Amino acid sequence: MIGHYLDPYSGDVKTIAYRLPDNKKPAKGDKNAATAPDPEAPQPRARPDVTQKGLAMIGDFRTDALHRALREAPLDSETLLALLVVAFAGANVDVRSPSDGYSPGARREIAASLIVGGALTADTLAIAKAARAMLAEVLSCRENASKSGGAAILAGAAIGADDYLPNFATEEFLPCLSRSQVEQAATEAGLPVRPKLQDTRAALLSQFNDKRFVPPRARFAPSESDVEQLSAPGSIETDLIAPRGDGD
Questions:
Q1: What angle do CA 66, 79, 126 make, to 5 degrees?
Q2: Residue 237: how many other CB atoms lie within 10 Å
Q3: pLDDT over 60 at 30, yes or no
Q4: Is beta strand 115-116 parallel, antiparallel or unpaired with respect to 13-17?
Q5: In a 3-state reduction of DSSP, which class is residue 3?
Q6: Which of 118, 181, 229, 242 is the most exposed place for a label (fewest CB within 10 A)?
């Protein structure tokens, strides 16, 4: 075939011979060969049931409704306790556990024990057991990243955790006390203070061999800073517990 084109450099009309490719005939008996879709061609993406913007709006409305229900809906103590346990296993909760580090596995396992048939259990014993386990998983007095601060001290004081402390009159712990603390402990135990600190320690070890010695610093006695940490203005106020008008 002959074609004509305009030379962009000279402006002359020129002629060129060209040949069209042969049309490939479909195989005999293949009626749909010409219309069969290419399997490698990009497939049209199906529209989701709800767009990302829609999901965001649903999340906002759900959160507002949840918070209003938590403020106003009638709830018994068992349900509230169970919900608190489950809340600690939420995806947005980051707890440096004293036993499990940063892993949420233990918290989720505890929360899962309260889910029966896709709903919260009504078993009060199971709820109480899970609540104890979750509090133990979260509260910590360890001197590391898991330390809960005043919250753990106040919790220990509330439940009488002093009664569960071990005997601190050991060869490992007594050297950690200052001279004044060792001598004060000896005096309170009715022991004479020896000139040598190690002799006073030895007397304490002997005195509390079959008893329990707990230094004041180890007891669950909230200090002023512990109380201030939790009761400072604005430290725990949220939209759920702040006073609200009837129109809210």
A1: 140
A2: 10
A3: no
A4: unpaired
A5: strand
A6: 118
Cβ-contact 228, 234 below 8 angstroms:
no
Q: What is the pLDDT of residue 77?
A: 92
Closest CA to 1 of 27, 22, 25, 19: 19
- Angle between helices 224-231 and 150-158 in degrees, nearest 10: 100
Residue of 133, 136, 138, 125 whose CA lies nearest to 78: 125
pLDDT score of 36: 58
If 0-12 CB within 10 Å is exposed, 13-18 middle and 19+ buried, where does residue 69 land?
Answer: exposed
Exposed e or buried b per residue across 146-180, where buried means at least 16 C-beta atoms within 10 angstroms of its C-beta: bebebbbbbbbeeeebeeeeeebbeeeebeebeee
Q: Where in the chain are the domains? A: 76-148, 166-213
Two structure tokens written together for 190: 């009715």
Looking at the whole model, is its pTM more than 0.85? no
User: What is the bridge-based pairing of β-strands 2-6 and 13-17?
Assistant: antiparallel
Q: How far apart are CA 136 and CA 163, in angstroms?
A: 16
Phi-psi sector, 194: left (phi>0), alpha (psi -120 to 50), beta: beta
